[in-house]
Amino acid sequence: MKKRQNVIIKGTKDGLTLHLDDSCSYQDLKRELDLKLSANTRASGQNQLIPVHVQLGNRYLSEEQKEEIKALIRQKKNLVVDKIDSNVLTKEEAESIRGKAEVSTVARIIRSGQILEVTGDLLLVGDVNPGGTVRAGGNIFIMGALKGIAHAGCEGNEQAIIAASSMKPSQLRISDCINRSPDIVESEEKHEMECAYIDDNRQIVVDRLQGLIHLRPNLTRLED
Amino acid sequence: MGEAIVITSGKGGVGKTTTSANLGTALALQGKKVCLVDTDIGLRNLDVVMGLENRIIYDLVDVVEGRCKIHQALVKDKRFEDLLYLLPAAQTTDKSAVTPEQMKKLIEQLKQDYDYIVIDCPAGIEQGFKNAVAGADRAIVVTTPEVSAVRDADRIIGLLEKEENIEPPKLIINRIRNHLMKNGDMLDVDEITTHLSIDLIGIVADDDEVIKASNHGEPIALNPNSKASIAYRNIARRILGESIPLQPLEDSGKGMFSKIKKFFGVR
Asked: For residue B7, how many other CB atoms are within 10 A of its CB?
């Protein structure tokens, strides 16, 4: 009897899905994939590129191996790898995903010369003094006064926001936008909590906190 | 077993040396056995302010390098009966002549014989600062009501908070000019303390007498009639654990007094 197939090709309306078996060796898998795809190329006459979705199941592939698979598939004329899915994550990947989703609470004053950096959201219970810097991969929420520099979405997240009870920053940065505080400070009457975000013109604007509900609905993490 | 207190500020010229000299003197006046340690190697001047310059034979670097015994280097202040001593800094070499470990050992040794070791820290945050804080148990940050001094004080407080063996630092606001503060041309005491958010241990008014006294080699704390002297004496008593309200900055400043009392915790 013929052994079961290691590569199963399925056609969907978005292109092809390749189910790669996760219990055979990587070498066998590569060989069979090459064979299967070579057999298949003859049928397609048109020049249209067909996106391919690769399903790895419970197999973990290193970046190099992924590249190999991609190259293998790309060789076959009009196939192009759209994405590679696996049920397996390395510990580091899992940690980094968790880090990005986490809100880190810090109770401290960030003084001149100090830098506080977190991968996810930052909830700071305390002030950021002039000369101090807070940096977060996600949003920054400051319960005290922001008088130093805050950099939200520092890995390129333009949706990130900065909120502070007292917004007197020396500089605001979101993703790669920078906003300096005005040289002339208007009346210091405002005691409302404020927030900063990037608007449609890619400018950082400071506004009332309540406006965010409509601008950044994704801020809500609570699932009901 | 004594306690070592480092007097630091970050910025230069805010009055670290004057404060060290006067707190040392005031603590000695309270009957405590005090040793002043000048760690500003290469730019020593605590000895000048104390008027002990011409009695120096050995210095801190000599002690650390084993050229003399610690008691040989200590300069006794004749105005006090065996209560006040000074360990002068070396003038011929620089900050790198001593390591933090050596300083720590030295201060440990001094703590056996003295109630208080007052360490005068050099300006800056480099080797000299690290040496000065190495052996300290407590820290006092001196600032003036200027934005630059407060900014540097903030930096220094941040560095002190990282030191594990030092209690949370206390703040002295030095050289307050009342008329400028009242007009809002100078940062006021309240603003500075909320900004730095550490405990205030004293305020000292700007007083010409301080400069005059320093130039004569006599700490102002010896003069019982000066305002600055009383301020320093009060700080010394607060170091000893007494609870004393801050003095008013001016005689008729009733409103200010209650305001100061409020954040000093006196109700």
From this structure: 26
- Asked whether B64 and B110 are in contact (CB, 8 A), the reply is no
Summarised one tens digit per residue, pLDDT across range B237-259 is 999 999 998 877 765 444 555 55
CB contact under 8 A, B154 and A130: yes
Binding-face residues of A in 132-151 toward B, CB within 8 A: 132
Q: Say whether B151 and A130 touch across the interface (CB within 8 A).
A: yes
DSSP calls for B150-186: HHHHHHHHHHHHH-TTSPPPEEEEEEE-HHHHHTTSS
User: Cβ–Cβ contacts within 10 Å for residue A107, how many?
Assistant: 9
Q: How many Cβ atoms are within 10 Å of B184's Cβ, its own excluded?
A: 9
Asked if B87 and B35 count as a contact pair (C-beta separation under 8 A), the reply is yes
What proportion of chain A, given as a percentage, has pLDDT over 70? 89
Residue B141 near residue B8 (C-beta atoms within 8 A): yes
Give the number of other Cβ atoms within 10 Å of residue A66's Cβ: 15
Q: Which amino acid is at B21?
A: A
Give the amino acid at A96.
Answer: S
Tokens 């080797």, residue located = B127
Q: How are strands ordered across the β-sheet holding A194-198?
A: A103-107, A121-125, A140-146, A162-167, A194-198, A204-208
DSSP E strands: which ranges in chain B?
A: 3-8, 34-38, 75-76, 84-87, 116-120, 138-143, 170-176, 199-205
DSSP-assigned letters across all residues of A168-195: --SEEEETTEEEEPPSS---TT--S-EE
Chain B positions in Cβ-Cβ contact with residue A127 (cut-off 8 Å) = 197
The reply to whether B225 touches chain A by the CB within 8 Å rule is no
Minimum-distance CB partner of A129 among B154, B159, B161: B154
> Token pair for residue B234?
């009060």
Express each pLDDT in A109-154 by its tens digit: 999 999 999 999 999 999 999 999 999 999 999 999 999 999 999 9
The pTM assigned to this predicted structure is 0.77
Separation between Cα atoms, residue B104 and residue B44, nearest integer Å: 20
Residues forming a β-bridge with A80: A51
Structural contact between residues B231 and B210, judged by C-beta atoms closer than 8 angstroms:
no
